[in-house]
Batch of 2 targets.
Target 1
Amino acid sequence: MTAEDRTVEDGTQDGARSKTTAALRGLMGQCPACGRGRLLRNYLKPVDHCAHCGEAFGHLRADDAPPWMTILIVGHIIIPAVLSVEQRYEPATWVHLTIWPLLTLLLTGLLLPRCKGVVLGLLWSTGAPGSERA
Ligand SMILES: [Zn+2]
């Protein structure tokens, strides 16, 4: 049997955990192991076990990484947009105070669970034991 024959469903060999695949599946909110079950419930809470393959995720702790990642991304989108709009259109202050906080909250709400999925997928792919494994 060659190494290519042993390639499993996610493109890894011998069941090795691909960081890229795990991160992408986490980004989509899917189980990093099988890509079919859900990774998060109630917005940000990881499921204890994948409903499809049974892989355990409840012990993984992402801690502050997802909020930091979200702040980094949202800040790099919002701040240049604020400066660009101000330079081009010079809108009234109330326009800035209306648009940017709402856009920031919207982007944060959309990106935070995706960032958490990426972090959990990467943690899972590295075989990190988590802080609460028995
Ligand atoms: Zn699964």
Target 2
Amino acid sequence: MAPLTPHWKQPSHPDIQDVVINEQEFTSKSLSKVSLPPFGLYAKMDFPPCTLADKPTYATVQIDQDKHLNLNSDLLYINHSCEPSLIFDTANLNILAGPNGLKAGEELTFFYPSSEWSMDQPFDCLCGKPTCRGRIAGAKDMSKEQLEGLWINGHIHKLLELKAAEDAKLSGNGNHFVKADRRATEDPTAQALRDALKHAEKVVEAAQLALHSYIESAGSGYNGASASRRGPTSRELSGEMGGDTVLA
Ligand SMILES: [Zn+2]
């Protein structure tokens, strides 16, 4: 985001945010002064300093289908990235660490189309990430694939669903109408945490499988007596027999 003349007292978030202005290049960025676990609360979008706005500007964040928020603070210096470090959870007015957590010194970024439907000032993203989406103009101009894998606010899911319904109607393709996305009606924070849980469950499952096959292969090298003793133990560990198996 281009530097702007702040009308608030700076720094507005001295304990958590370091704003770096490059006067030669007319650019700015923000670095974190804190470390947080995944989905930890970084900052609140509070009233004040936030005020409501009825249309998007370079200084607003969209919080509902037709509601925007003037941040009126240094939080405005948080740049876009296609692989962001932060989540702007606009339904709960929370700014959260992303799924990988946040480290002190890391650049503070969020994925603008996660809250913005149609941006006042589109731009070509130069984040340089392998998953860079290129032109960033808001979620309205992005495909489902381009938004995949990123945390997206509920109002954007709703607007995407309305647009899909409209597109289906226009193409006379009513029979292939896209089924209502469950995410559109669910609290996005709950959804993000559910995704994190699903991921954690997969890690546990993979570790169990690895342990199981390790014990199996280690067992095959031993004599019959120890292998038969090891057998039930490994099945028990992998959960096949429940936790209450009594070994003879
Ligand atoms: Zn990018």
